């Protein structure tokens, strides 16, 4: 294969370009925005994702910028009592072979971009929105052998892949803000990723070394504001959101009332469907399978997709066979991750007797058992 066009310079698109370059294949990345904006928030990068970043030679630079939390903790949102925890810092490298980290999405994208700009096999075009395949042909200067739709949850390229999925509002919204560490209440632990769980809602808080701040995301049911990554949080929404947490611990209610400059995101998924036409088009990342963030794996799956795609399409198999093989294998893994996310949602948002049973079961489990349950997810080494 000689020419690859990649639509979108998000995490999926940038990692794909680096992965193809590692295989000696030239690519053109087409990004619709004129400058890559600092959108998004903090993200957790689990060992299956940091492994790929290590293989691409990006992890060394990121290590100075991300934080490796000691534990992931589950805590009651009503009482702040601990329910269970998984050691991450001590376990991730030894058990899963790579670190577990938290970082701002903008920092990850900036570092990936620096590597992309330094790579002679990659051409990056900003302000290059592609609505049709003719746009791609014109910008690339010919029809590429392979076109990769890495253009996110509202992908336009999906229209060119017959029987692909559809974006669907999940009925949930994420309310996000960043609070400087110096202003943070003492119950927020800078050494851990903490999920505060409660009936029909949960809050995740973790430190961002690169921002000197905590990333706080509250997830609950809500209305759909349309296609956006970060809508402004108007007073009505703020009121609706705080009402959902009115029975939570006083310290959490105080934190939400204080929330500086919150933004909110509607949570969209992409339904099951085809990712490839079996010839020369493929979808990866959120364009293929946007999912709710309950397993914190959306970007991780995008990173794995990008790396594996470069591996399978640059081997000996015909391109069409390679694309179908990729679709089959990756759909299997992504579907397992989606199920894990659905399970987490059930467990985090439980109420009444289910909540009591959950707490009992989780408190009885040994840390070793909890870690072993995650081997298939965090210990996965994407083949490149
Ligand atoms: C609240 C929340 C918390 C999350 N937390 C985590 C987490 O902790 N860990 C994790 O792994 N994941 C997390 N995720 C998911 C993660 O952020 C996404 O899965 C990931 O960013 C998707 O990357 P992508 O490159 O596929 O898409 P995007 O990041 O959306 O990038 C798509 C790019 O394509 C460009 N584009 C769009 N249309 C066109 C076009 N027509 N032509 C050219 N360019 C175009 C866009 O401008 C953009 O730059 C979270 C998501 C949410 C909502």
Instruction: Find the structural class using helix and strand composition.
Output: alpha/beta
Radius of gyration: 21 Å
Q: Name the overall outline.
A: globular
The unreliable regions are none
Main beta-sheet strand count, sense and barrel state: 8 strands, mixed
Counting H and I runs of at least 4 residues, what is the number of helices? Answer: 14
- Bound heterogens, unique: flavin-adenine dinucleotide
The rounded distance between the terminal residues' Cα atoms is: 16 Å
**Per CATH, which architecture of the domain at 4-68 and 99-167 and 269-346?**
3-Layer(bba) Sandwich
Oligomer: single chain
Count all strands and give the number.
Answer: 15
CATH topology title of the domain at 4-68 and 99-167 and 269-346: FAD/NAD(P)-binding domain
Helix content: 25-40%
Strand order of the largest sheet: 5-4-10-11-12-9-14-13
CATH superfamily of the domain at 4-68 and 99-167 and 269-346: FAD/NAD(P)-binding domain
Strand content: 15-25%
Provide the CATH top-level class of the domain at 4-68 and 99-167 and 269-346: Alpha Beta
């Amino acid at each position: 294969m000689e020419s690859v066009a990649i639509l979108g310079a998000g995490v999926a698109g940038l990692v794909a370009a680096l992965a193809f370059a590692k295989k000696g294949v030239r690519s053109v990345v087409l990004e619709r925005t004129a400058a890559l904006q600092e959108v998004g928030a903090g993200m957790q990068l689990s060992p299956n994702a940091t492994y790929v970043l290590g293989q691409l030679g990006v992890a060394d630079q990121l290590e100075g910028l991300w934080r490796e939390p000691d534990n992931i903790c589950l805590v009651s949102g009503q009482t702040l009592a601990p329910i269970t925890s998984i050691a991450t810092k001590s376990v991730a490298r030894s058990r899963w072979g790579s670190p577990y980290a938290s970082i701002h999405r903008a920092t990850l994208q900036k570092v990936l971009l620096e590597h992309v700009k330094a790579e002679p096999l990659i051409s990056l075009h900003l302000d290059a929105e592609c609505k049709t395949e003719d746009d791609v042909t014109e910008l690339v200067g010919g029809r590429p052998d392979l076109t990769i739709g890495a253009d996110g949850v509202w992908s336009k390229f999906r229209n060119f892949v017959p029987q692909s999925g559809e974006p669907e509002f999940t009925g949930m919204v994420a309310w996000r803000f960043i609070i400087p560490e110096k202003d943070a209440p003492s119950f927020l632990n800078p050494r851990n990723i903490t999920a505060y769980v409660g009936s029909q809602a949960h809050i995740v808080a973790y430190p961002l070394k690169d921002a000197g701040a905590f990333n706080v995301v509250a997830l609950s049911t809500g209305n759909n504001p349309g296609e956006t990554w970060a809508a402004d949080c108007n007073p009505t929404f703020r009121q609706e959101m705080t009402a959902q947490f009115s029975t939570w611990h006083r310290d959490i209610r105080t934190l939400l009332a204080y929330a500086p400059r919150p933004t909110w995101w509607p949570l969209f998924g992409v339904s099951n469907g085809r990712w490839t036409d079996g010839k020369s088009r493929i979808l990866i990342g959120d364009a293929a399978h946007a999912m709710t963030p309950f397993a914190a794996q959306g970007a991780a799956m995008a990173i794995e997709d990008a790396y594996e795609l470069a591996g399978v399409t640059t081997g000996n198999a015909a391109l069409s066979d390679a694309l179908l093989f990729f679709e089959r294998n990756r759909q299997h893994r992504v579907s397992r991750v989606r199920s894990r996310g659905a399970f987490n949602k059930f467990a985090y948002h439980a109420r009444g007797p289910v909540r009591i049973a959950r707490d009992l079961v989780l408190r009885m489990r040994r840390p070793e058992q909890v870690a072993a349950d995650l081997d298939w997810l965090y210990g996965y080494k994407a083949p490149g």
